[in-house]
């Protein structure tokens, strides 16, 4: 097996077709308690895309995380061909692991049309160039002196280079009064090939990595011991323009509200020229850890 994290991501997204509308995806054995949600969303989108004729890129997806997936156990993706219209193709995907549905996704594909008009709000922030910012691992090493062994292993397997526009906060005092906003530069750590579906699914994978940071920022530092058990509940994306996930993109994130144990986050993904590529919305569940009790 390859040791290059970008190649591993491409391999992870390369599903095995076991029937006309049924695919099987690997779920690596990780130290995490549950399968990473971005992996399941990315694989489900691959399954949906494999049942289309390939000339209509995905323009939106809506998904629900129903149960936590188990690392190391394969996931089966069952695709329902809901509609093949003149302009749009619709697919519904159910992810099943050990006989239980863990995830549902509906994706819509649309062949690009020449619109009569275009507009776009300018980016909210003027972020410094990504090359001028330290990587997450560099920030952690600078603060701790060295990466803990578990984080070192995770860093070596990380398929995306992530660089926070604002410095990481490390103490409760530093998060006091912080706005529920976060922004990161991201790109795959190596080439992902030229298949547009792979880039779309890779960015779908990445979109789940930092979005809920915006919910947590006013409450606790992003790194270090967590006070909350956090899980994605649902995820929606709209793809506006073509892109490559192995080129830098700016992920601007904000949380308009957190209440009732749930936090809502919105994200806008831009290229380096400030063009809006993708819009994202996600809601997450937040439960405070109880000492000696179940989370």
UniProtKB/TrEMBL annotation:
InterPro entries associated with the record: Acyl-CoA_hotdog, Acyl_CoA_thio, HotDog_dom_sf, TesB_ACOT8-like_N, TesB_C
Keywords, in A-Z order: Hydrolase
Domain annotation Acyl-CoA thioesterase 2 C-terminal: ranges: 158-285
Phylogenetic classification of the source organism: Bacteria, Bacillati, Actinomycetota, Actinomycetes, Kitasatosporales
CDD domains assigned to the protein according to its UniProt record, in alphabetical order: Thioesterase_II_repeat1, Thioesterase_II_repeat2
Family stated for the protein in its record: Belongs to the C/M/P thioester hydrolase family.
Protein name as catalogued: Acyl-CoA thioesterase II
Domain Acyl-CoA thioesterase-like N-terminal HotDog as annotated: residue spans: 33-110
The keyword Hydrolase appears for this protein: yes
Organism: Streptomyces cavernicola
